[in-house]
Amino acid sequence: MRTGYLLSVFDMVDVGDVDVVQQAAEYTDRVEARVLSDEAVYGATGRLPVVPAHERLEIVGSLREVADAAIYDPAGPLKVHSRDIVYGRTDVTVGSAPVDRWLRPRSPQSADEWGRTSKPTSTGGVLGYVPGAWDVFHVGHLNILKRARQQCERLVVGVVTDDALFQAKGKYPIVPLAERMQVVAAMNIVDAAVVDFSSSKLEVWDRVQFDVLFKGDDWQHTPKGERLESEMASVGAAVHYFPYTAHTSSTALRQILASR
């Protein structure tokens, strides 16, 4: 068995991170992610990463092709066997780390390639659906997905279009639709990702036919929440509410990026 060690920063995990992980999985039997510590990133770039190491580690460890994830220890051995290989991402600085081969992120798939009718390949059990923007994927997003998956056997994630987000919030997302879809679909607790075109969830229910829809509790006991519950009840689906992670948001990350 040949192990590929992917050494990178994994700051604000993006479609490039997802793609190089998938490339490493194509070349080796097992992929282990090694995440540069905050101190190592500062030493290599002169500034701290946007996302702290423990959150970067949790997210990259949730990627489907990653068998193990750990903080990179420059004082210890990286490869266990000589046949193993250390990969790095060509456009990410890793300082003087011992990289054997560099991987260049490929162009992301278009949103059209994902199709309007993507569904889980497995059957049986409660099918859950959780819509969202998933812009600049962070640990708060991961917590939402984990909480939803705890309440269903299969999970479909809806990714709201750029135009729909602009109509709702008056601004476009930082990350375009196709890239947001590819990142979300790469999480190991997600069975399928679909484009969410409309504020009415009846349209997406016609395509996915989920049993339960998950929303943040800021919708509960509000007019929009009551409309959603009524729509879902008309097709026999339930609405479950749960709290979102308060300390992390895409808005906060957007502000940090704007200040740099």
List keywords for this structure.
Rossmann fold; alpha/beta; single chain; 5-stranded parallel sheet; 260 residues; 21% strand
Describe the structure.
The structure is a single chain. This protein is an alpha/beta fold and 260 residues long. It has 2 domains: 3-103, Rossmann fold (3-Layer(aba) Sandwich), CATH 3.40.50.620; 111-254, HUPs (Rossmann fold). It has helices at 15-27, 38-45, 53-60, 111-114, 139-149, 162-169, 177-185, 201-208, 223-233, 250-259, and strands at 3-8, 30-35, 66-71, 85-89, 101-103, 127-132, 154-160, 192-196, 212-216, 238-242. Strands 3-2-1-4-5 form a 5-stranded parallel sheet. Strands 8-7-6-9-10 form a 5-stranded parallel sheet, with helices on both faces. The radius of gyration is 19 Å and the shape is elongated. The protein starts with a strand and ends with a helix. The mean pLDDT is 89.
